[in-house]
Specification:
Structural class: mainly beta
Number of strands: 38
Largest sheet: 7 strands, mixed
Radius of gyration: 28 Å
Length: 587
């Protein structure tokens, strides 16, 4: 039995939210989303009635400070959106001038949308150049950056807070990954194999390909698994005046076929013609902006061609104003800023369908955008005041913010598990803003947690309670009955043939092991020898505890003379969070 929020999560297309992140403060505030009155909630071991009213502003949350407690600035052009997370970088006060902290905020699916997790620091990137060179790149399973030691870091993410980190000592100290695909990453140097131990000799140059320029430099690049596109800044006779946009098919072996020049202006600095300025690539389209260098204000337009029609005449977006870089492309859509009035009097963010040429949505914004990302239904941008915003294109469901508990530090080893369990609605904190991570979990609370982890399945609660100490009016009667019906808990037998559940008693670690193993279908462990020194093979829960260790749900305590499980100890709330999340992410 798998939990609902991993087996049947709503797609990101269902999100409707505006998230504003102002980088100048450190206190979070949120408007509660729509609630139901169908079941109570668990705040620690305190039962509270569920809210029955809906705030008119439930679709919006505002977070003052993306990373509370830090003194930072958001780095432009470094927002990334994926199926399950938001990534961004920050230049922290006191850090090296070009170092950027890499942060991840998980999008946890909820019953009506998503909950945005608290920022988790996952590394430090190095940004040697201003845009168009981003300091990280991400897809749905990995995020990549170059760290200050000149190593290429790839953080593989499995949908939870844990992730495997690979370090690729690429020996290319000046190299920043802008995008990757088919086993390559692209940047200002060209194409480099995505593997350990590569050197400059492994780089496939792109700048000036097919021409005999005196000098050529890449000033913008993007790629997918089957195409790389870049902008050359080139010249001859000791002068660089030209810009050209080039696209080239690729595969795992490298470049395939011949390059296609999509736009070329050899006299961009001295002429009045458009030249390519910014490029983004999806699996379907190559999209770019073009500028007229000496125009005031600078005139830009938006052009695109299909990946399977590179030699066709480019399409162009018609606007009474002008398009402003950066742009962001996802599938057959592009997001960009459009200025319609003099001196930025009327500025809006536009999401355009490239297949139909129709505008899907427009969002009034405060000029101007310095960072932009588009993925599925979400568009994210960074404005000139270093405020970060995330909003859905369709606007249909909700986004909430996972609370920051006052007694759970971001450096706490259980912080990510607590975030995820809270974000998915399995558990809540206390009214005073605490989580109380060391407090024991009662059996009635654990019944509610497991029931919600399973997706709150519909059951017909019996008119007679299966336990003599649990009335039919108990606030968690349905959850406790479900636990009994599934055989997860049998309780303690009485002499009269009934059983007690003991709902107010703390859950022991041995009982927790039995609950989770039964939820998983009671799998047989691969060994009969428990890995803990304080759990004998004859222990009544030896199989469950052994299974917990073999699956990585519990590692116990290292005493120096072997690991202990401490089966009779109470389950703390922080350990409960870790157990449930590790269980939820079992293969």
């Amino acid at each position: 039995m798998r939990p609902r929020f991993f087996s049947s999560a709503p797609t990101v297309r269902a999100v409707a939210v505006l998230l504003s992140v102002a980088a100048t403060a450190g206190v979070a505030s949120a408007v509660a989303g729509p609630a139901t009155a169908s079941e109570p909630t668990v705040a620690g071991d305190v039962v509270t009635a569920a809210a029955s009213t809906v705030s008119p502003d439930w679709h919006r949350i505002d977070i003052a400070g993306p990373v509370p407690g830090t003194s930072t600035r958001l780095a432009s052009r470094t927002i990334r959106l994926t199926d399950g997370a938001l990534y961004f970088t920050q230049a922290e006060v006191g850090s090296a001038p070009r170092d950027r902290t890499v942060w991840q905020q998980v999008l946890y699916p909820t019953a009506t949308g998503f909950a945005l997790g608290n920022p988790a620091r996952i590394g430090t990137s190095y940004a040697p150049f201003v845009p168009p060179y981003a300091s990280l790149s991400a897809d749905d399973t990995s995020v990549m950056w170059r760290d200050p030691t000149s190593s290429l870091i790839v953080h593989h993410w499995d949908g939870g807070m844990t992730g495997r980190v690979d370090t690729v000592a690429n020996q290319l100290g000046w190299s920043v990954p802008v995008a990757w695909g088919s086993g390559w990453f692209a940047n200002e140097a060209g194409l480099t194999p995505l593997r350990e131990g590569v050197s400059r000799n492994d780089v496939v140059p792109l700048a000036g390909i097919g021409q005999s320029f005196d000098a050529a430099y890449i000033v913008g690049v993007d790629m997918t698994d089957n195409l790389v596109a870049w902008i050359d800044f080139y010249g001859s006779n000791g002068r660089s005046d030209g810009f050209r946009l080039v696209a080239h098919h690729i595969d795992t072996q490298g470049l395939v076929g011949n390059p296609v020049v999509l736009e070329d202006n050899p006299t961009a600095y001295t002429g009045a013609d458009f030249y390519p300025a910014d490029v983004e690539v999806s699996e379907d389209y190559v999209v770019w902006t073009s500028n007229i260098f000496n125009s005031q204000p600078r005139v830009q337009n938006l052009r695109w061609v299909a990946v399977d029609g590179l030699t066709e005449t480019p399409h162009e977006y018609s606007t009474p104003g002008h398009v402003v870089a950066p742009i962001a492309v996802d599938g057959n859509r592009v997001a960009f800023t459009e200025d319609l009035g003099p001196s930025w009097a009327e500025t809006r963010l536009v999401v355009l369908n490239l297949t139909t040429g129709e505008v899907e949505t427009t969002i009034p914004i405060y000029p101007w955008v310095t960072g932009l990302a588009l993925h599925d239904d979400l568009v994210a941008w960074l404005d000139q005041d270093e405020a970060m915003h995330v909003q859905s294109v369709s606007g249909t469901t909700t986004l909430s913010q996972v609370p920051t508990y006052t007694d759970v530090a971001r450096t706490d080893p259980f912080a990510g598990h607590i975030d995820e369990l809270t974000g998915t609605g399995v558990v809540t904190g206390h009214a005073d803003g605490t989580f109380r991570p060391l407090a024991p979990v009662t059996r009635e609370a654990m019944a509610a947690f497991l029931y919600r982890l399973a997706g709150s399945p519909h059951i017909t609660a019996p008119p007679t309670s299966p336990f003599s100490d649990v009335t039919t009016g108990h606030p968690f009667y349905t959850a406790i009955c479900w636990l009994a019906q599934e055989g997860i808990s049998t309780g303690w037998p009485n002499a009269d043939g009934t059983a007690t559940f003991r709902p107010g008693e703390p859950v022991s670690r041995e009982a927790m092991a039995a609950f989770l193993r039964r939820m998983a279908g009671a799998p047989t462990p691969t060994t009969t020898t428990p890995p803990f020194t304080d759990v004998a093979a004859q222990h009544p829960f030896a199989d469950a505890i052994t299974w917990m260790a073999q699956t990585g749900i519990s590692t116990g305590w290292d005493t120096g003379a072997g690991a202990e499980y401490r089966p009779g100890a109470h389950v703390e709330r922080q350990a409960m969070a870790a157990f449930l999340i590790r269980y939820a992410h079992l293969d």
